[in-house]
Amino acid sequence: TEAGCVYLSKALSLNPSHLRELHLSWNDIGDSGVTHLCSALEKVHCALETLKLDKCGITEKGCSALASALSSKTCCLTDLDLSINDLQDSGVKKLCVGLKNPHCTLEKLRLSKCKVTHEGVTALTEALKSNPSHLKELDLLENDLEETGLNVRKACELEMHDCNITEKGCAVLSAVLPSISNLRELDLSHNNLQDSGVEILCIGLKRSHYDFKTLLYVFNQTYKSIVRRSRGSDVCKPDLDFIVLPTAGLEDTKCRLESLNLKNCGVTEAGCDFLSSALSLNPSHLRELHLSWNNIGDSGVKHLCAALEKVHCALETLKLSTCKIKTEGFGSLASVLRSNSHLRELDLGNNRPGDQGAELLSAVLQHPNCRLKTLRLIYRNIVFEKVVK
């Protein structure tokens, strides 16, 4: 509780203090406890770098204390976990005061399940724009972000699964993908993106291959399509970010995304067609693609395989569990694995290969061109996980 934090604060203020990590998760320390810890973080002798405070009863007041600590020249904190606290947008705004400060050294910030909405994300965006931040990883899992301005340009990883994001959110994200030069991993799993959202996202993946006029035309047509489907809902009233970003993102920096997670996003064959086009680019930087729990079927697999056969496709990991893939799809995958594909890991769990599909895939593992190292397959209720040496 708060009393324990008083003792910890004194220990952290020692000269010298060797403690680098402190995990206090699931303790009811509250805002008062955080305030005591923050007083130590501002001391010159405190060397703490990692602080885990998830589910600690922290609110807006605690965020104010943390912002003050992050603004201190002597604070060494690089990893801060505030997940499962009732911060809300007001707390995030307080925290952003610290993130804006040039003395802030934070590299990882976790705000999962903190009741953050569009307003909070906007504040985070502005904070990271105004300061050449060290932040490399931002976790916003399970917040009600909906169609927020996802233009956070400094992070290396964005985790936004289960955040109620749809195609409009994809449009905003797509607009800035080429300008987020550091972004390597993007997790949008468990959002209702559908094929239309994937189509828009792929525009961002292919941005450097569009000329200016073509790009504006694609965005214009895509947005008109969204408006037609919305039938007068809020999506017909675009926010400022959506209007500005399609041109703001037109920079020379190319999208260098390496990992894309679209698990359980309502993707079908059509979405795979869009992804196939993006994977066929020269150059394509994508190394990992997660499409599990999407109804892509054999037709969707065919589209993906068409890209895997291309010389510029660099995909190494492909997750396709529970995708309703049958014998025909397994045949397509077996064929592409014989053609010098870069694939090293393939997850096909919980699909229906049939005897023929399973045999085709098993046989291709012996082919000299097959580079596959890890294969996961469930057939006849038996789980096969094979590591090829």
UniProtKB/TrEMBL annotation:
InterPro entries xref list: Leu-rich_rpt, Leu-rich_rpt_Cys-con_subtyp, LRR_dom_sf, NLR
For this protein, the record's SUPFAM superfamilies field holds:
RNI-like (SSF52047)
Q: Mind listing the UniProt keywords for this protein, alphabetically?
A: Leucine-rich repeat, Repeat
Please name the Gene3D superfamilies in this protein's record.
Ribonuclease Inhibitor
- Keyword Ligase attributed: no
Q: Which domain of life is it from?
A: Eukaryota
Q: What is this protein called?
A: Uncharacterized protein
Cite the source lineage: Eukaryota, Metazoa, Chordata, Craniata, Vertebrata
